[in-house]
Write the structure tokens for this entry.
Amino acid sequence: MNQVLEWLQFVLAPQMINGLSIGVAVVLMALGLTIIFGLLDVINMAHGEFYAIGAYVAVAILGLGLSFWWALLLTPVLMAALGYVTERGLIQRVFHSKDRHTLTLLLTFGVAVVLEDVLKIIFGANPLRIESPISGGTEMLGLFFPNYRLFVMGMGGLVIVAVWLLVFRTSLGAMVRAAAFDRYMSASLGVPVSRVYAGTFAFGVALAGVSGVLLAPIYSVFPTMGRDFVLIAFSVVIIGGMGSIKGAVLAGLLLTQIQSISSLFISPVWNDPLLFGIMVLVLMWRPQGLFGKLGHA
């Protein structure tokens, strides 16, 4: 009995905390994806590259002699500007085509390839490292947890709550949800749908940038870092329901916990097949995902 309690305390609990810290960052990425899809009906294949750019922007800001906290503050602003320009300059050019879904998917995939190569040209292919801005750890319930991971969980949780309040408790969020439900009716009622689209895309990109900054001190920063995380984020969005904020949060936390705990029993190389297996089972049982779209929330 004592061995079981020790295993729960010293093996399972730390693993769950680590999974929760990663899960919060994954949820931020998935929120950006699901908001963009829920409103614009655009599958953003470049979302992983925006996540990577967020991490590299933090590297550049630190290289200027500013602190990590400045990077955390400035990166989402710069990423939002990049997202706005991308939506206005590229996506809007094909958005109203009858083949919009195919064209936007191919367009964002091309943007992803270009951005990845640009990162390699500017920063090189070698991994870079950002030192953790918060050192040490905290002892809780007889366990020792790194302070920075606790900060990531707290900061990510605050951002998630702020996004929920923005979407469901403000007039701006009401316009976003109205445009997602029926853009033609919203436009006839005076909602600036085009601006809402651009702002929402920029907001989703900013969330990806925040995720990149928060995870940069935990992982190395390299040009292809967005590939693995965007696969997880897409799985979260599909399982939670394409366009559902609640689904993205719950599915993100659940899937990262499953990955974290399963790594205690199986090789980490099986994590992705396990994740995709769960996605297939959910789609077989409930093709629309666990929850509804943004406009119907």
Summary: The CA atoms of residues 17 and 145 lie 8 Å apart.
